[in-house]
Amino acid sequence: MVDPFYMLMLMHQLGSNYVVWDKSSHIDFIAPGNSKVTARMKIPSAEVITIQELAKDGEAVFREYKVDIVDDQQKLIATVTKTLYIRLRKYSKSKEQASRIETPHTE
């Protein structure tokens, strides 16, 4: 239910100069969901600035995000913890990832 969203949100906020990958997920199931369930995910702009600062020298950055999944009565159903890997693309160890932004495509 929440798997790609933190990664996609950060990819959008950081832009194409960064590699953002899902590293891991952990789900704590609390109660059965017998109705519509929802999750609200936010990444504050201060978090984006922190990531940019941590990644500026080419270091890999690992950030953890937690999100609660609740039912229509706001009863906690599950808690998901996501760990993301973030790095400036030019420092990425994956040649394909690094060249995607730096090398123009010629045929």
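(the above was protein one; protein two follows)
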Amino acid sequence: MVLALMGPYAQSNSDAVSLPFSAAPYRTGERLTYNVSFSNFISAAHVELQVGARGVFFGREGIQLRGHVETTGVVYAALFAINNDYVTYVDPATGLPFHSQQVVREATRTSDTARAFNEPAGAAAIPSKLRNGEIPGTYDFLSAIYRLRALPLAEGSTYYMSVRGETEAYQAEVKVTGSQTIKTTVGSFNTLVSQVHVTNNSRGNNYRIRIFFSDDERHVPVLITARIAAGELRAELAGSEFVKPVA
């Protein structure tokens, strides 16, 4: 979601070890809202993440994830007019996406696209060879956030994953570097600090993305920060609730 606003292995192979997968972040009805500040703009955008219904989608069992990104106020009127919607369907056992839809509404273009990931289901998605800490398969940005939340996120651990954007593929290395208390408008949270490195793309790596996950079962992203040329981008948790899922 933050990358949408930004416009955007040194280890040897070993026998595959299935990384732990927590179902807690995929509880249907969870809705997270964020206020995004950018440079000198205290409220530049609004982001919403929601776990929709669980059921049969496109011929297979899945969970629907929804995302919405919208710039607001002066930023929308004068700088970046963005009003985008994202829907991704993931396998309940692995978090791997198998279908996604994206509606982009920007000042210079409007598009409505869909993509099939053709990822195998369940245990068949785990290949025979993986590096320690490597997450198999390819994710989009929305499903990647939830898959990271489903990991143990132990301090000192490192995880690797492949993430595909609209036109580029990214090899991400996520290091859990420590813990920190984060104060927001909805309370204070003990968080696990994760540093994201993009190993195959220097432009993406220069964003210096950090994600602060709540230190509990749900691993809610409490704060996401990134550096861009015009200043710091901060997406801070503004609300967390459970609502009736919309199919």
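Reviewer note on protein two: The radius of gyration is 17 Å.
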